[in-house]
Amino acid sequence: MTPTTLLWLVTGCLMLQPLSTDLYLSSLPSLASDFAVTPAAVQQTLSLFVFGFGSAQLISGPLSDRYGRRPVLIGGLSVYLLSGVACALASSLDWLVAARFVQAIGCCTAVVVARAIIRDAYSPAEGARVLAKASSMLSLAPILGPILGGYLQVAFGWRAAFVTLAIAGTMVWIAAWRSMKESNTKPNPDAMRLDNLFSTYLGVIRTPAFWAYALPGAISYAAIFVFISGTPFVLIRVLGVPTQYYGYLFAFGVCGYLGGTLICRRLLGKIGIDRVLALGTTIGLVGGLGFLGLVLADVRHWALVVAAQFVVMMAHGLNFPCTQSGSLAPFHQQAGAAAGLFGCITMFAALLAGTWVGASHDGTLLPLATISATVCVILFASARLLARHGKSA
């Protein structure tokens, strides 16, 4: 594959994740009304997606190490598009939650393989730049997705969002089938043996340089997932924002992520991965604590929520390309397994954050602000405490 073809394919695979979580966000309140359930119950469609996404990566990564990136990617995309149809046909919340879990398996396979392809093709520093470039491009998904989702909800109802996801999965499937060349030139025939699988993951877990990037990366994703899972109910139900306008507000917040990735691309060559990560976690800390401070000062306005989301997502745009590339740097033959473990840890951190947000919803801004500040403090501390291991990678 040419660098341009590889970039577009990786971007398409990575884009499925934010589309899968963001496109139907404006439909969450309507889902609660249609199925006559609580907001916490509806958030299972997010939390079970995250759980499936995190769990399946432990298998998807080694599968691509064993059988190659291409066949595993094609299979994962097939699962994704078929489960999207099943979501659109769901007649109950349980059916929808189950279909979302299966959809997560296909989605995570695409993301894990995309990360492993980058490790196959580039050095860690160059890989971080490619991931930052892909992140800039895929930020269109969380920017435009909620806007489109809001109009789809108003015009056709929540099922239209899942039809759209199935179409997106089909487009990426076609691109992978036609354009992708195998990048895993030395498949590991023992990658799926249980004893080898255990020893591979144990080796990754025992590598301090992995945790120096994987843990901050996971917590950084949890920081933005606080807003992904919490803003639909806070903006639409608490602050009275019309459903069709929610997507615009969420999209403005995501513009912070786009800005962060652009800044990341410019700074990586000048100051390196570790200093960019230090900058990103500092910005996140300012955003989280500032949000909580203003809420405690009794500021109640949608602009505060959007501004806090903008700052925290900007920080994530700086953090995530660095942590994705840095966590895989010590590995080559086990890049798929390392990418899978990184993704698993990331998704479980998001699952904890989303569950916390859903359980604490009380009709005010305070729970969202408190959780955001707490996660950002933990992110800042983790990056500082583990920084010495990253510099030795």
UniProtKB/TrEMBL annotation:
Question: Pfam family of this protein, just one?
Answer: MFS_1
Which PROSITE patterns did the record assign?
Answer: MFS, SUGAR_TRANSPORT_1
> Where is this gene product found?
Cell inner membrane; Cell membrane
Q: Where are the transmembrane segments?
A: 42-60, 72-91, 97-118, 130-152, 158-177, 210-239, 245-264, 276-296, 302-323, 335-359, 365-387
**Database matches in CDD domains:** MFS_MdfA_MDR_like (cd17320)
- Residues forming the Major facilitator superfamily (MFS) profile domain are 6-391
Which UniProt keywords are listed?
Answer: Cell inner membrane, Cell membrane, Membrane, Transmembrane, Transmembrane helix, Transport
Q: Which GO terms describe its cellular component?
A: plasma membrane
Kindly give the membrane topology term recorded for this protein.
Multi-pass membrane protein
Alphabetically, which GO biological process terms does the record hold? xenobiotic detoxification by transmembrane export across the plasma membrane
The family annotation for this protein states: Belongs to the major facilitator superfamily. Bcr/CmlA family.
Official protein name in the record: Bcr/CflA family efflux transporter
What's the source species for this entry? Answer: Sulfuritalea hydrogenivorans sk43H
